[in-house]
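Closing statement on the AOY sub-project.
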Amino acid sequence: MLKTEARNLVLQTDSYKFTHWRQYPPGTQFVYSYLESRGGMFEKTLFFGLQYYLLEYLAGVVVNEEDVREARSFVDQHIGPGAFNFDGWMHIVRRHGGKLPVVIKAVREGMLVDVRNVLVTIENTDPVCYWLPNYLETLLLKVWYPITVATLSHAIHEAVLHALEQSGDPALIDFKLHDFGYRGVSSEETAGIGAAAHLINFKGTDTVAGIRCLQRYYGSSEMEGFSIPAAEHSTITSWGRENEVRAYDNMLTQFPGGLVAVVSDSYNVYDACEKLWGEALHDKVLKREGTLVIRPDSGNPREVVLKVLEILGHKFGCETNSKGYRVLNPHVRIIQGDGVNYWTIQDTLTAMIRAGWSADNIAFGMGGALLQQLNRDTQKFAFKCSSITVNGEDREVFKDPVEGHDKASKRGRLALHRVNGKWKTSRTGNGDVPGDELRVVFRDGEVLARDTVKDVRERVARLSS
Ligand code: AOY
């Protein structure tokens, strides 16, 4: 195996930040910056993932003399001799033992906060290190990703829950959105963080990295995500087109009980449902102690799902539930995992309900749209300085561009309050503010507050009850 180079925190920043220590006003002692979502696709964001970044990158001794020398040599060549803040970093190594002299405050993970509010703040604790808070922006702002995945997954949770309340059984919600996204993400780290963010809302996943991320960084010793035996195209098509029915039959034989999912669009999903599942294997499906989950995987999700439901309803029968909606024979369900996103899920559920089908009949698998089709601008995340202390005097700091008032930033030291369910950011002086939803999570190298996945899920559960 290729040995990857050791990580060097000093180099985990944008190039221009190497030069910023020379650029603050003379006498600058403290720089105070904050993170917010300036809006975007959703009006609230579900805060999650900071703890991963704190534990993985910032906690404990994170810099040594060798790191600083390596960084100096790198920056000397990359920008030019003398650009790098060698003395500043050596001060952190010598005076602070390689621990970062900053204090980070944040809202609790699992809180759903109105956009345009402070979520995280950071300030240096040693006046010599005024340049450090914003040096860490590049690393810290990456928390946009788990927050945005958690926010999207939560929004879908609410939409599907609504459909279940209207047409079926809300207790089924935990497994209605399954994470299919592992292969479609940019990296293994992305998979771990993004899939963990989905799992604070749901329990179904095929992205193993997310479960391991929760076990490692969110104090979990339990199984936090579940899956079932399921076919992929290769295990069906390898039997040959003429033997499609034998491939399906084999699935029922190999997995004689419980849930089993079978992708059924290798050739003609309608024929597969009608003639193979609905006729040749009909009795074997109904004799199973469990549920066959048929997975269409091509075409327009709304249209294909409706057609497949009609075929399966005709072949296997259905019952009308107490809410007046049709539910397939309990031995048969559908999982739609192609073309699935925030919009097509609602489109499909609306069409199903209009056609008299309960949302109980379907689960969704979502891949790229869940874990990768998001960016920092989906919720317009920004990290900005709002206060500095120069020669002992606090000054408010802000930007407010003439051609972009939407990019205006907040001023001063900040606190976060919830007033009658509405979130509000207020300017504060230095020191603690009663009722502030921001709590210290990190100080001088130590992670001072931790949430378990259980804590986070309990907070999230309170949102929909
Ligand atoms: N998984 C439910 C369990 C998982 C999957 C993973 C890409 C599953 C399929 C299924 O039923 O069909 C990655 C595509 C599908």
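DSSP finds 16 helices and 18 strands in the chain. With this model delivered, the sub-project is considered complete and its resources will be redirected to Aim 3.
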